[in-house]
Amino acid sequence: MKKRTHFFRALLSAAILLLNQCTDNPFSDTTISLPGTTIRGTVELSDGSSPDGVYVWLEGFDFGTFTDHNGRFQFKLPSPRSQAGAGITGTLKIYVYLANFNLATHTIVLRNGELDYVHSRIHENGELRNSIYLSKFLDIETDIEPTSVDLSYNGAIAVQLTLRALEDTVFVQIPDKTQGPLSILMTQKISPDQDYFEIVVTHPFALNANMVADTITMVPKVWLAGFAMSPGRFPRGKYKIVPYFLIDPRSDLPAEMLNNLGRNIDRPVSEFLKIPTKRNGGDLEVTAIN
């Protein structure tokens, strides 16, 4: 009995030693990894502005989301069995998009529907190893005067738009034969709720005008316009005044990603505001009558 006990102890010790020396799955030629279905990351902006509202899109699965006020985003991937071919194997790109910032991408690798952490530069908890950094190429500044009126105000609101390229020449599209990007103003209530939206037209032919190209360089280009405010025209609240113009899209922007933002984002309608863009200024407050 003692000899048999010693034999089993020796066999167990040898098995443990063998397992400790083995780092690969003995039933496969791939390294053992923990399955992961969630991708998380952080976006940072070159100008130090709040990284909220950045659009992040994952090709292949056609997932899109916006970053929160900390620049955080996440995707939850479907289980391998519910993916094409019972688990995708290959490379996919994460696109990170703001209209007036340079596009950024991050490549992930899937193997049988699960993340390949090493080649995707992702920690095993699904967190990208580095933040995604976007550099700004166009500065957009909108100045309003006055910035605050009460409900009885009967007068003009002056609007000034300044565009300045931070790198090379930037091309924009503006309504032809009008006052340029200030011919159409998107007026959106942002507080205390978002129940009011109005398109303010400062030039009579702007809505039907063709869009023409204009160039923006590192020398600021300025436009001036205004519109009349009659008593009670806007409900009490805080508003954002957004001039209508298009930043020429990059050739490497996937059409499928842009379609997710809206079919009419390039038209002077409310969907235009879905284009993720970082603008400065443009704030107007309508207060109660003093």
Question: Summed up, what is this model?
Answer:
By secondary structure, this protein is mainly β.
Care to describe what's here?
The chain is mainly β and 290 residues long. It folds into two domains: 30-134, Immunoglobulin-like, CATH 2.60.40; 138-287, Immunoglobulin-like (Sandwich). The protein contains three helices and 20 strands. The chain has a five-stranded antiparallel β-sheet. Strands 10-20-17-13-14 form a five-stranded mixed β-sheet, with no helix packed on it. The chain has a four-stranded mixed β-sheet with strand order 16-11-9-19, with no helix packed on it. A hairpin with a 5-residue loop joins strand 13 (184-191) and strand 14. Residues 2-36 have low confidence and may be disordered.
Amino-to-carboxy terminus distance: 101 Å
Structural shape: elongated
Percent strand equals 35-45%
CATH architecture annotation of the largest domain: Sandwich
Query: What is the tally of helical segments?
Result: 3
* Overall structural domain count: 2
Poorly predicted regions are: 2-36
Strand order of the largest sheet: 3-2-5-6-7
Round the Cα radius of gyration to an integer and report it.
27 Å
Class per helix and strand makeup = mainly beta
For the residues shown, what is the average pLDDT? Answer: 87
Helix content: 10-25%
**Major sheet summary line:** 5 strands, antiparallel
Summary tags:
290 residues, mainly beta, Immunoglobulin-like, five-stranded antiparallel sheet, five-stranded mixed sheet, 20 strands, elongated
Strand and helix layout:
Blueprint: H1 2-20, E1 38-45, E2 55-58, E3 63-66, E4 72-76, E5 90-97, E6 104-111, E7 114-115, H2 117-120, E8 132-134, E9 138-145, E10 148-150, E11 155-165, E12 170-175, E13 184-191, E14 197-201, E15 211-216, E16 221-229, E17 237-243, E18 246-247, H3 255-261, E19 280-281, E20 283-287
Parallel strand pairs: 1-8, 9-19, 10-20
Antiparallel strand pairs: 1-4, 2-3, 2-5, 5-6, 6-7, 9-11, 11-16, 12-15, 12-18, 13-14, 13-17, 17-20
